[in-house]
Design brief:
The complex is a heterodimer. By secondary structure, chain A is an alpha+beta fold. Chain A contains 15 helices and 22 strands. In chain A, strand 4 (about 95-100) and strand 5 (about 105-110) form a beta hairpin. The radius of gyration of chain A is 25 Å and the shape is globular. The chains are: A alpha+beta, B mainly alpha.
């Protein structure tokens, strides 16, 4: 892709960079002896600069689930487990774990010799406090993930036993540093978690220690010399930089002054150009547990949308491949149903559902609307609906503009309404004063975590954002999902989810548009940064910089 | 009036401005014939460079940039003119009341005017649009709300200057009512300054509208130059034409209106007549 040269951009970026931070000069370069296979041997030292966008409002990751916090806090806090590429649980702060046959007792043996950054020793009391007092009470995902957790028993300092009311197969999928960070009990005891002094000066057990947060500019993390994994971390320092302007973010990577940018920190339109840059490389790995799907939510309280034919017709009218190609710039794939295809690994996903991407989809859509009793008026319009524009960025306005054209083909006149975030959320999740909404959701590591709450009728909770606001009440889906929540047998659980997907796509309480493919852009000198499916939501303990 | 027109015609730059605005107005009128499908229609493959098929190229969604520029002209002129007109009407009224009645009325109205003048215009406009929820009407209201103070101060100044003149005193002596003196005698005497300043307001209203639309605060159902630029910004380095043409349109329109405004000022302002 050829771009016109814009020297002023990079000059501005460089000026900004010099003004922003003085990055410590790395120690003199060492000679590098290549590892067998041609890859260079890791060398310790150096400062990694990563771009985090936008700047987090807080670092209290134990109480706030915003996606821009964990890239920083997972360097500092650790969870009980991490996951390998097949999403199988692996030890982290828990050295080993054992699930009882009835699935109601989980025994964790903890790592020995681990200390928090304030010097306190890590024991089972910290685990108990993190789960029972913090995660269960203030973590926004706590009520779902930890619903069945009744108590954490601590027979000795290095053993934590979880007692569950019912089996919860998804719980083992939700114990990463990002999901449930282990905090230091002595720091939090007797305080209000959100107002704890360590909320924005985190104290954890991770490979990097919090050093400074210069608001509007950067967070600095320094190497934890007493980290419990011997010889790690390799980097001396991590700087998380905040650059509000997208073009400047791209320029920072292109000039080599930033080494790493994950999620949507780089404009999709810029990614192809960056991939052609000789000093940069890219990967789409490391998003196995955070895959996002863009969807439409239909307000089934509205007379038109209460009819299944209308909802299905809208699903047929949308060209999902067009959205992927032109709004996501090719970084995604068309969605077929409520479960993302990332669940193929686990077997929960199926594409054996009603397919809306058939060649004669417009014909079918128009016929459905005719049959539903909405003939075209003299100007070709059957009826009008409003679309609430997602306020989280420009691409959603583009998507809205496309949807307006797509629905015009089947005689539905779509009016776009764009409001600020607070008004948008109130309209769609509290007042229910909307027709169609266009949010996007992260699926989580298990459907229970990120999918159920959008479709089960028990999740119709007025005033709670990002739950079932569609008034979708299907006893069949409720039962299937409820059974899947407790089913320990993988094959049976997969069958339950397949049936649920079929039913939901048939009912079409929403439309599933595109699975967003995130891209990480990184400098070729940065190695070993994406070591598992958690990607940027995992500590850079093995990452190192070539010099 | 004819003399004024002649003086306007003598100013070549002003005539050039008027010609450009004439073309823009003509395009606006012909838009339904040139692009009957509208500016939001997906006309072809995305990001096509300017050429025979798509005169100004297509944007990231495959919409014809030329159709967008033409449709944006309509929005800009509509919002620019209505916002400037309502600002002029409201500002003149406030200024007239303050300048004629003086005293407490003057103090209250002028402090109010200054209050609005001290708030950064663009921020206030953004705030108003967010509160009112973006639509053509709310954008017009927001722009007029930040544009009237200048007119109010101008009209007040003119009224104060004219207040002691014989024809006003004579009217008062003959028992004319306040509103009659304001509307029949005083206002017509400052119409020329109001027209000159008001025409410049159109230009600033168009700029404000583009700025709001650029930030995503325009009516999402209406094509606008600001919206085009904001949509094209992400592809600036790979598809320059998406931003460039609406940008040129804004430049030319605002420049021409400013030229016309200067021309009108010279033609109508007696103090500049001999230049």
């Amino acid at each position: 892709m050829s771009g016109i040269p814009t020297p002023h951009l990079s000059r501005r970026a460089m000026l900004l960079a010099t003004a922003a931070i003085a990055v410590a000069a790395p120690p003199a370069a060492k000679a590098q002896t290549p590892r067998p296979g041609g890859t260079p041997t890791p060398v310790p030292g150096g400062t990694m600069v990563m771009i985090v966008n936008p700047e987090p409002a807080t670092l209290a990751t134990y109480a706030v689930s915003a996606g821009n916090i964990p890239p920083i806090t997972t360097q500092i806090y650790e969870g009980l487990l991490t996951y390998d590429w097949d999403l199988k649980p692996q030890p982290l702060l828990a050295k080993s774990f054992e699930v009882s046959a009835d699935g109601k007792t989980i025994t964790f043996k903890l790592q020995e010799g681990v200390t928090f950054h304030n010097g306190a020793a890590f024991t089972s009391a910290d685990v108990q406090y993190s789960f029972m007092e913090i995660a269960k009470k203030v973590n926004p995902n706590g009520p779902v993930i930890l619903r069945e957790l009744e108590s954490v028993e601590t027979p000795d300092a290095m053993t934590a036993i979880f007692k569950l009311a019912n089996p919860a197969p998804y719980l083992m999928m939700s114990l990463s540093s990002n999901n449930i960070p282990i905090i230091c009990k002595s720091v939090f005891e007797g305080t209000v978690p959100m107002q704890n002094p360590s909320a924005n000066r985190p104290i954890g057990t991770g490979p990097f220690k919090f050093a400074a947060w210069e608001r509007g500019q950067f967070v600095r993390l320094d190497k934890n010399d007493k980290y419990w994994k011997p010889g790690l971390p390799l980097l001396n320092r991590i700087i998380a930089r905040f650059i509000p302007d997208a073009a400047t973010r791209s320029a920072a990577l292109e000039t080599g002054e930033a080494h790493y940018a994950a999620y949507s920190a780089v404009n999709a339109a810029d990614i192809k150009r960056m991939q052609a840059n000789p000093i940069l490389d890219s990967t789409t790995r490391g998003y196995g547990t955070t895959a996002a799907t863009s969807v439409l939510e239909f307000n089934m309280r509205r007379p038109h949308l209460a009819k299944k034919e209308v909802r299905q017709a809208i699903c047929y009218a949308i060209d999902r491949q067009f959205i992927v190609n032109n709004i996501l710039y090719g970084f995604g794939r068309p969605a077929v149903g409520p479960l993302s295809s990332v669940f193929s690994t686990s077997g929960w996903f199926t594409d054996d559902v009603r397919r809306f991407d058939v060649p004669n989809r417009l014909e079918i859509a128009n016929k459905l609307l005719d049959d539903a009793g909405y003939p075209r008026g003299p100007n070709g319009v059957r009826f009008g609906l409003h679309l609430e524009i997602n306020s989280f960025g420009e691409q959603w306005l583009r998507q809205g503009e496309y949807l307006k054209q797509a629905l015009a083909q089947i005689g539905i006149n779509l009016t776009l309404r764009s409001e600020d975030t607070a008004t948008w959320l109130r309209r769609c999740y509290t007042d229910y004063d909307f027709d169609i909404n266009e949010p996007f959701y992260s699926a989580g590591a298990d459907p229970v975590i990120g999918v159920h709450r959008h479709y089960v009728s028990s999740a119709i909770r007025q005033g709670t954002t990002f739950v079932n606001n569609k008034d979708y009440r299907s006893p069949i889906v409720d039962k299937l999902m409820d059974d899947a929540t407790r089913e320990l047998d993988r094959t049976k659980r997969a069958a339950l989810y397949h049936a649920a997907q079929k039913q939901m796509v048939e009912d079409s309480p929403g439309a599933w548009l595109a699975e967003v493919q995130y891209v990480t852009i990184f400098n070729k000198k940065l190695h070993d940064h994406t070591m598992g499916p958690l990607g940027t939501y995992e500590a850079f303990s093995r990452a190192w910089l070539e010099r | 009036m004819r003399a004024a027109l002649k003086r306007f015609a003598r100013n070549r730059m002003a005539v050039l401005g008027a010609c450009i605005i004439g073309v823009v107005a003509l395009l606006t009128a012909l838009a339904p014939l040139l692009y009957p499908a509208g500016a939001f229609t997906l006309a072809g493959p995305p990001l096509q460079p300017p050429g025979m098929r798509y005169l100004l190229g297509t944007d990231a969604l495959g919409r014809d940039v030329a159709a967008g520029v033409v449709a944006g002209a309509r929005t800009s002129l509509l919002i620019g003119l209505s916002a400037a007109l309502s600002a002029v009407l409201f500002g003149s009224l406030i200024g007239a009341l303050a300048g004629y009645y003086r005293g407490a009325t003057d103090i209250v109205l002028m402090r109010l005017t200054e209050f609005f003048q001290t708030i950064p215009a663009f921020l206030l406009a953004m705030l108003l649009v967010v509160i009112l929820s973006p639509s053509v009407l709310s954008v017009i209201i927001a722009i007029s709300a930040v544009s009237w103070p200048g007119i109010a101060r101008l009209v007040r100044g003119e009224f104060v200057a004219l207040g002691g003149r014989e024809f006003v005193l004579a009217s008062i002596g003959l028992g004319a009512s306040g509103p009659r003196i304001i509307f029949r005698h005083l206002l017509p005497n400052c119409v020329s300054s109001i027209i000159a300043v008001g025409s410049l307001l159109v230009a600033s209203a168009i700029l404000l509208e583009s700025g709001l639309a650029f930030l995503g605060l325009g009516d999402p159902n209406v094509m606008s130059w600001g919206l085009l630029i904001s949509a094209g910004r992400v592809t600036l380095r790979s598809a320059w034409w998406v931003c460039t043409f609406p940008g040129i349109a804004i430049l030319l329109t605002v420049l021409s209106i400013n030229l016309i405004g200067d021309g009108l000022n010279e033609a109508l302002n007696p103090r500049l007549r001999e230049r």
